[in-house]
Amino acid sequence: MKDFAAAATAGLLLAAAPVAAKDFRLGLITPPPHVWTKAAEAFGAELAEKSGGAHSVAVFPAQQLGNEAEMLQQLQTGALDMAFMTVAEVSNRVPDMGAFYAPYLAENIGHAAAILRSDTARGMLEVLPQEAGVVGVGYGSAGLRQIVSRGEINEVGDLSGLKIRITPFDANLDFYKAIGAAPTPMPLPAVYDALANGQVDAIDMDVELIDVLKYYEHADTILFSNHMMFPMVGLISARVYAGLSDEDKAMIAELMAKHVDSTLDTYTAKEPVWTENLMGVGKTTKTVGAEFFGDAIGQWEEIWTAKAPSLPALRETAAALK
Known about the structure:
This protein is an alpha/beta fold. It is built from 14 helices and ten strands. Helix 8 links the parallel strand 5 (163-166) and strand 6 (182-185). The longest helix has 34 residues, at 246-279. It starts with a helix and ends with a helix. It holds the Pfam family DctP.
């Protein structure tokens, strides 16, 4: 009996021991050429190097492991190890993260990067293990949001009733409802054909994908509005993270944070180039500011000040960083 008890105890201790080596799986919704996907691949390569080959990362882009809601569930159970995910999806579970989508929180892409690197933004990650079952290591970006329309847009009233493709999260839904549009959630791979065949009238998108994936080919108007940030967060399953040694926790978190953060510099450098490219595609282009959206911004603020306690502090931080 004593030998059996000793063996059982040893087995339990072994099962609870930190994982010495692991082949991690990292999911994204972005296509292979996207900045986020490239950053994920660079993270995997550096982790393999720094760990002496003990760890590797298999990157699964383009929703190969499911949409973001499905991947977040997998992270919570430990079925998925890591993800580079929109803060949008996390905000569906942790409404306070919706504060990042305050209209015109950021003046430009460089200002957005500064906000996401702030102590205020980093502090908002602390609740994720308890509230979402994930560890957030830092923020990246997908640039600022623009509107591409099949028809002519001269004033905000022209958007009323239009089916506008959006990423499905409450902060975005509330914004487009406030301007009278019909927000239409749709996965990224379906967007090009949907705009081409008229399934949607317009899309909410960043300049990288408007340019690189040529969404402008089936549009008449590109509205450069920069109306909303669209941050990304590097996530590790809290269950997986708990099974790592302290050394591996520090190394993995540091390297992931480094490569997630690198996307902020990439967008700061490339967004003007993508914007300039779009100026030359033969479509009507208009540049508008907060005044274009009229009362919609105030309506959004009223809803989200109640939902996102960090919004006033984030607005204050953003103002100080101008």
